[in-house]
Amino acid sequence: MRTHDLSPLYRSTVGFDRLFNLLDPALANDRGDGYPPYNIEKTGEDTYRITLAVAGFTRDELAIEAKDTTLTVTGQKAETQSEEAPSYLYRGIAARGFQRRFALADHVKVEGATLENGLLHIDLQREVPEQLKPRRIEIATPGTAKAIGQAA
């Protein structure tokens, strides 16, 4: 198990709190639990898809919550109160509950989610506000200078 101490960086930096808040949980994740397995793919210039393998879970047993820059996917199997509960000789399909968290970058929004063939697909879209997008500034010649943002 690898551990990294970031405390020397805290003493010598100012204004990087958000970066350290993202690094701390990633480095402190000692669970090492890979359940459920997942993929993160880039499907376009500003679109992404997270796919989780949630075989055996129904739509009602899954919950997706996006809060600030954290996406949380939770799965909780419904309790079965059946008198004829199966007697397993071998049980290789996990039926345990889970909670998987993903840190989202600024301006990334959840577009939707679908469940098909045991795979939960969560589609994400990065929407950068207009004021944060790069813009071209024209260089004027002396005597014809215009204020930035002035209509032509």
Automatic annotation (TrEMBL):
Record's keyword terms, sorted: Stress response
InterPro entries named in the record: A-crystallin/Hsp20_dom, ACD_IbpA/B, HSP20-like_chaperone
CDD domains hit by this protein: ACD_IbpA-B_like
Domain named SHSP: residues: 29-142
Keyword Ion transport: no
Keyword Signal found: no
One protein family per Pfam: HSP20
Protein family: Belongs to the small heat shock protein (HSP20) family.
Protein name (Swiss-Prot/TrEMBL): Hsp20 family protein
